Amino acid sequence: MKSLRLTAVSTTLLLAALAGVGTAHADTPTAAGILQAGAQEGVADGYPGVIGLVRQGDTTQYVEAGTGNLATNAPADPKAQFRIGSNTKAFTSTVLLQLEAEHRLSLDDTVAKWLPGAVDANGYDGTKITIRELLNHTSGLPDYAGTAGVAGPYVLDLNPNQAFAPQSLVDIALASRQPASAPGQTWSYANTNYVLAGMVITAVTGNSPATEIQHRIIAPLGLTNTTFPTSDPNLYGNYLHGYVHPVTFYTNDVTVSNVQLYGSAGAMVSTLDDLTAFGKALLTGKLLPPAQEAELKTTVPVDSAGTTTYGLGIEHVQLPCGQWAWGHNGEILGYYSAWLSSEDGTKQVAHANNEFHLLPRTSGQIDTGTALVNAYCAL
Questions:
Q1: With the C-alpha atoms ordered 127, 128, 132, 133, is the resulting torsion angle positive or negative?
Q2: Rounded Cα–Cα distance for residues 198 and 224 (Å)
Q3: DSSP reduced 3-state for 339
Q4: At 23, is the secondary structure helix, strand, or coil?
Q5: Collapsing DSSP states into helix, strand and coil, what is residue 338?
Q6: Are 105 and 200 in contact (CB under 8 A)?
Q7: Which of 78, 119, 209, 286 sits 20 to 30 Å CA-CA off 178?
Q8: Can you name the residues that pair with 63 across neighbouring β-strands?
Q9: Rounded to whole angstroms, how far apart are CA atoms 11 and 323?
Q10: Burial of residue 306, with CB atoms counted within 10 A of its CB: 0-12 exposed, 13-18 middle, 19 or more buried
């Protein structure tokens, strides 16, 4: 579950305004056509299925290729639910920003103020790390998700019901290595940051992150196909099955997978429509007052070129066509998704694939990611 990394090789101008809602075909160089061609490339690369969405103003088009269920060979449905992985982080960040707006905390509070003793081992000191540094990944904390004891059993999906208390995940991270940099100095992505962020939400409100996200974001926005499972590893209703290819010529259905391992860092389930609706509401101030909206969009550099920067749960990326877009991605067992949006939410592109085995830079990721960027640049 890493941050957004997208590469594009060309741009195509949108030749005509899209009309209505429907499935696009790659017979014209429209944004939807570009995304459709990328979806088909992704299936040719080995993905079971790829779905996508292109939105300009009030017009939406969907794309699909392959299957959402290898057992039945049912077509991949662009309206289907999927696990959104690290796209969950923007929801968690939003709750903390709302709590700050309510004067219940400050993002400059230390972790130790709300979670005494939670970060106090192997050279790490929660009295020197702020909530803001958790949210923009400059805390210097290591990632529990990359440790062999966590990653190995997870990718094999050995025990979807295994319980993981948030503090136990933090403890695994702290024990994995000593600090490589002081807090606030270096950007380094770690799911540990957002597990702690969820723990802060609980400390401040007395409720779980899932409860706060439900009544603060999901319900007010009417995201009827978005959920935050906290223990049940199953999916329900209309959903894409998720798969991994852990060994050559063997495909494993990992639709039922552990949600406690990522929690407020990546456990949520949603659809392309709900995810982009949330992105638009977040970027246009419907969820946050101006002061917190500014904090959300205050970024730190991710790369030396300055083309990728990270805010509070979202990224700001300069695409090869020169345009800037906000977005994020979600990498979770069996699923890979990403979205891009203009700041005013009038241009949005998103896609999801139903195979992910925790290894980046596969052909499918490159081809569908390129199509995502080129489609956005064509709007």
A1: negative
A2: 22
A3: strand
A4: strand
A5: strand
A6: yes
A7: 209
A8: 52
A9: 11
A10: exposed
The residue type found at 86 is S
Strands 315-318 and 308-310, by their bridges, are antiparallel
Span 260-305, pLDDT tens digits: 999 999 999 999 999 999 999 999 999 999 999 999 999 999 999 9
86 is catalytic: yes
Mean pLDDT of the 339-365 span: 95
User: Would you list the DSSP string of 172-230?
Assistant: HHHHH---SS-TTT-----HHHHHHHHHHHHHHHSS-HHHHHIIIIIHHHT-TT-B--S
Separation of first and last alpha carbons in the chain: 28
Phi-psi region of 50 (alpha: psi -120 to 50; beta: other; left: phi over 0): beta
Contact between 48 and 247 under an 8 Å Cβ cutoff? The reply is no
Least confident of 19-23, 92-96, 177-181, 333-337: 19-23
The structure tokens 């990721």 sit at: 365
Helix or strand or coil: residue 179? coil
DSSP state of 21: S
Say how many residues make up the chain.
379
| Strand bridging mode 347-353 / 49-56 | antiparallel
> Regarding beta strands 59-69 and 22-23, do their DSSP bridges make them parallel or antiparallel, or are they unpaired?
parallel
> Are 174 and 144 within 8 A, CB to CB?
no
CB–CB of 6/317 below 8 Å?
Answer: yes
Each residue's pLDDT tens digit, 165-184: 999 999 999 999 999 999 99
CA distance 276 to 113: 34
Count CB atoms within 10 A of the CB of residue 36. 26
pTM for the model stands at: 0.92
- Give me 148's structure tokens: 């062999």
Structural tokens at position 122: 């192997």
Q: Nearest to residue 253, comparing CAs of 72, 14, 103?
A: 72
Q: What are phi and psi of 53, to 5 degrees?
A: -140, 140
Q: How far is 193 from 27, CA to CA, in rounded Å? A: 44
Which residue is catalytic, options 86, 93, 139, 341? 86
Band (pLDDT 50/70/90 cuts) for residue 360 is confident
Nearest to 49 by CA among 65, 27, 35: 65
